[in-house]
Amino acid sequence: MTASINASTTFAPLLVDLLEEIDFDQEGGAAHALVERLYPFCRSITGNGVRRSLRLLRETIPLALPEVVSHTRVFDWTVPDEWNVRDAYIMNEAGERLVDFRKSNLHVLNYSIPVNRTMSLAELRPHLFTIPEAPDWIPYRTSYYQKNWGFCLTQRQLDQFEEEEYHVYIDSTLHPGHLTYGEFRIQGETDDEVLISCHCCHPSLCNDNLSGMAVAARLAALLHGLSLRYSYRFLWIPGTIGSITWLALNEAILPRIKHGLVLSCVGDSGKFTYKRSRRGNAEIDRAVEHVLTHSGHEFQRLDFAPHGYDERQYCSPGINLPVGCFMRTPNGCYPEYHTSADDLSLISPFALGETLAQLLRVIQVLEQNRRYMNLNSKCEPQLGRRGLYRQLGGMQDRNDVEDAMFWVLNFSDGDHDLLDIAVRSGIEFQGISKAAELLREEGLLKLI
Amino acid sequence: MTASINASTTFAPLLVDLLEEIDFDQEGGAAHALVERLYPFCRSITGNGVRRSLRLLRETIPLALPEVVSHTRVFDWTVPDEWNVRDAYIMNEAGERLVDFRKSNLHVLNYSIPVNRTMSLAELRPHLFTIPEAPDWIPYRTSYYQKNWGFCLTQRQLDQFEEEEYHVYIDSTLHPGHLTYGEFRIQGETDDEVLISCHCCHPSLCNDNLSGMAVAARLAALLHGLSLRYSYRFLWIPGTIGSITWLALNEAILPRIKHGLVLSCVGDSGKFTYKRSRRGNAEIDRAVEHVLTHSGHEFQRLDFAPHGYDERQYCSPGINLPVGCFMRTPNGCYPEYHTSADDLSLISPFALGETLAQLLRVIQVLEQNRRYMNLNSKCEPQLGRRGLYRQLGGMQDRNDVEDAMFWVLNFSDGDHDLLDIAVRSGIEFQGISKAAELLREEGLLKLI
Amino acid sequence: MTASINASTTFAPLLVDLLEEIDFDQEGGAAHALVERLYPFCRSITGNGVRRSLRLLRETIPLALPEVVSHTRVFDWTVPDEWNVRDAYIMNEAGERLVDFRKSNLHVLNYSIPVNRTMSLAELRPHLFTIPEAPDWIPYRTSYYQKNWGFCLTQRQLDQFEEEEYHVYIDSTLHPGHLTYGEFRIQGETDDEVLISCHCCHPSLCNDNLSGMAVAARLAALLHGLSLRYSYRFLWIPGTIGSITWLALNEAILPRIKHGLVLSCVGDSGKFTYKRSRRGNAEIDRAVEHVLTHSGHEFQRLDFAPHGYDERQYCSPGINLPVGCFMRTPNGCYPEYHTSADDLSLISPFALGETLAQLLRVIQVLEQNRRYMNLNSKCEPQLGRRGLYRQLGGMQDRNDVEDAMFWVLNFSDGDHDLLDIAVRSGIEFQGISKAAELLREEGLLKLI
Asked: Which of A378, A391, A412 faces C148 most closely, judged by CB atoms?
């Protein structure tokens, strides 16, 4: 079911070279174009909308579309019936469609059962959802596991409803079918994996989470074909039920997942937010925080908490994978969250490109982070006779490369990896990594 | 010697119900009434004053009054002779009582030997104690273990002394007798104990420590008859020698003491102060700090230091019990400390009631704090089908009960008790505890 | 090779007495006088300048001058040829010495090979070093391991050079000989050692590091003859190659080194700086920080970093001794660093005396820091009957000595040494140490 592509051919390009060449504005533009095309589809946790969305991603990367049959038991949950909707409206006595699914996917309560009846406003009223304090926005509401039907509309629309009879019509189906998700795996030199996961179940909402879906696709496309140490697994899955399903069906794989990120809300103009894995000090946590610290961007760190996105499942106590959540403005922290105002105007190619840049730098840290042993640990080795140290002594200024070499030598004692040394020294990881490479080439370090 | 009452009858009321019904103003009033009645007695570390004080507490709870015979060896100390005083004065040549024990218990140096002599002011002077910087206040001074006699008086009194002969009279006795203390024990479901200790040796000083004596008595009365998990042991003991005596005679009990508090200076209007146990992070320390954090009151935390009250003995290195000290304004930090100005005007029913409220909440945390194991630790359990989760999805606001359930589920991994989870989540303990109860009833948690 | 003097004779004076008598201004004056005499010599990492400098220190203490033959392998390094220089100049066509070694030792690139040629300014130019931003100062430059020659001069001198032929003359030799260092050891009661190390290789630079050399000599002279617990080893060694050489030749001694300090830049008027050992929380680190905290001086703490002085070698991962670096303004942090402006005007007797005072107090802490066990750990012992506690009770103020005794008693549990207790209590170490001595004399503590 998984698309697997072996990237470790002899002539595969390197991530370090990619990072020097890449035009992140252009990459952000490509991600934004994907969002624009995905925006009109009516997605849910199952059904043709999500299926069609994932197929569109195949233009970018050859992902697999595994399908899990309805009613499959997945840990404590059961895969629900597949939901599809074709049309829906509320029509007044004059035959006007006051609320019309064809105008916004959000108008239908997600997972509504079919309905085709005439009723009074009083009877209809409990099935209408608005946001009184944002009267021009349609809310996004769902009822996956409790059979219900309803309409989401603007408060201004609701204010025009009068006491009359309404024809209420939802042409939906809830039948045994499948839960569909997207999976793409890049084989690296080792079977150790980095997991990138995003939820793909929200209908026309851009930041949450077409941004994550598009960035994951572009990231996969950029890594695909590179020479990589880790294997990379990308998942586009319906929120909660999707990650639970994947985890339940792939338990054997979990020990191989060494690092992971959930991507969501990565297209708005807010500062970056990193929510740590449940472990709190995993390598992925240190890597993301190091990269963001040196990014020149302000960012916020959050400790793990059991609310948010699929990190809730990846970090449940019996799974406890080192998976953090990479965001810009977090869920619930911007006013347009889960409303029709989370539209194309909320995100930008520039912001998507910036996100991609940080993610690639995090991956570069993971790829290059190693633990070395100083083979010459009694006093400093003489770097000068190896051409690694300045010829002239006495200068006041410190040389960055020399400085990094001394940090690597002093702390390559078996207890510290390069990322530890970068954090301790305050030197950006690439400087530490290059210093280690110079020292290794001279036979002064041994990989452990 | 110990009054023991079994509280775990089938129909015993619960602390949680008590906390909902209780009127803390009324409770504070009852404590204050106790202080008013105890105020006139001349207490010391032994003698009839303390005996009479403890007997008065028997109107509130049926405490036992163990008596330890003078000269008993208790660790490095020896129980001293019993001291009693009937009258004392300094009379001038004109026959006026310039200093008169009948006007204040503080006028006699506590543990003064008897004296009945005429002497010059020069000879008398070294036996007179005042506070020059607070000329209207009588100091409180003691000389328990060094035979001495003296008078404490106001500076204004002393200023009126002239060069003449004085008749100095102290009608006291120091004879073999007993050291008396009060002890009251409530048997809970288990023999594990919570210790509440206060010193009862100070004469007419209200905040230090009639406040602690009265609050302990009211607390015992409130807990008495409840259905409790822990057993509760209350001690009213003379400072230092009392706790040393009790510890020396009850070493076999010490392993059962799981938590403890020393109560002192709990009736003034200052903010709460919690001095941690020597362990620093004992459950009692975390419980008190959690309750005070959520109390809406400002409070200060102090690390353990080997000065203060009987926590010095409970936290001596060879005893090292998890006993903290609960105060409002600490000893030495208010100007009226150890003077006649620590009188009824310094304390209030309201402050005593607030103290009682915090202590009961701390006890509620101890009673309910448990460690559970999530029985469904791989991904979240589906709370919705158990009726534990909202029916409609997509809302921005988080539901407090749901939030608490997710915290309990995620951190009930064997390493965290409910108090840990409350502290980590920032949710008040009762919310966490109720969530755990809901989850346990659904079979999702197991007590460990 | 090592001068060893046994200080533990019966009548040897005590450090504590020395500290009460010492006049630190006078001591600073003596150190300054040493610097003045050492200033004119042209030192390098080998050669007669350093040899002559160390011989001059013999007027202060009878140090040994071990010599290590050129080309000896020391870990990854090789002892270089010995360098000596007699004269050097740049003469213009008019026969004027534009740059003249006789005016400043800094004018010659340290370790210059001999040269005696006539050349154009263009050919000469790459061999001339100035500091354009400090046009009146001569830089200090070296080329120990890369054969080169050159002159260091002021920018103003260089500005007067015209396009003409120059006679360039350096009368130096680079021949097999010796690396010379100074070593002085004081035998204490135990063979456990405190290492004091300073680099002695810089030519006419006062703060870096004639200050360290002179302070180390005075410190040795002050300790010499005292009754000491530790043995003390003082090293005056050429930077880098000297410490590497000493470590390579004395590996068997290293397990005995319990504490150490590198001294450098200790004569300027800047605040104290302590750079921690690589271990970060070694006893020497805690001792220095405690002394400086109570010194009344502002000071800065730096974590270990693998740049600086010989602590780089002592704290290399395979050596990892508990050696910190004691400085005033650190290397590179004052503008005169490694220039001719690091002259006698930069340092003062007063600053050198202050440094000596702090170092002696640190040594006093090391000498007196012990771990005791409270022999009466169940409750407090009764200090009153031993005459260790005030006779009169009830006073508000705490007595410093009593306070210190209670801290020592409570934390002498096997886990804390006296320095730990001083840090925890906030009481200056001497107070804690005196309290421990009182308690030990009373049989309440046992040395462990």
From this structure: A391
CA distance B105 to B202: 10
> From B316, which residue of chain C is nearest by alpha-carbon distance?
C379
Average pLDDT over residues C46-56: 98
Residues C91-122: pLDDT tens digits? 999 999 999 999 999 999 999 999 999 999 99
Show residues of chain A in contact with C110, CB under 8 Å: 393-394
Environment class of residue B302 by beta-carbon count within 10 Å: exposed (0-12), middle (13-18) or buried (19+)? middle
**Min Cα separation B5/chain C (Å):** 29
Please, which residues have CB within 8 angstroms of residue C341's CB and are 6 or more apart in sequence?
Answer: C134, C136, C137, C335
- Alpha-carbon distances of A268 from A219, A272, A347, rounded to whole Å: 18, 10, 4
**Residues 6 or more apart in contact with residue A147 via CB below 8 angstroms:** A113
User: Computed from CA positions of residues C325, C329, C335, C339, in that sequence, does the dihedral angle turn out positive or negative?
Assistant: negative
Of the CA atoms within 13 Å of residue A244, those in its CB half-sphere come to 23
Contacts of A372 (CB under 8 A, 6+ apart): A408, A412, A418, A436, A439, A440, A445, A446, A447, A448
Strands (E), C356-396: 372-374
CA distance A338 to B23: 45
Question: What pLDDT is stored for residue A8 in this prediction?
Answer: 45
The pLDDT assigned to A9 comes to 46
Mean pLDDT of A35-48: 98
The predicted-structure confidence for B356-409, as pLDDT tens digits, reads as follows 999 999 999 999 999 999 999 999 999 999 999 988 888 777 788 999 999 999
For residue C337, the 8-state DSSP code is T
Region C426-434 average pLDDT: 96
* Minimum distance, in Å, between the CA of residue C172 and any CA atom of chain A: 18
Closest residue in chain A to residue C79, using alpha carbons only: A382
% of chain B beyond a pLDDT of 70: 97
ipTM for the predicted complex comes to: 0.95
Interface test with B, best of C375, C377, C378, C444 (most B CBs within 10 A): C378
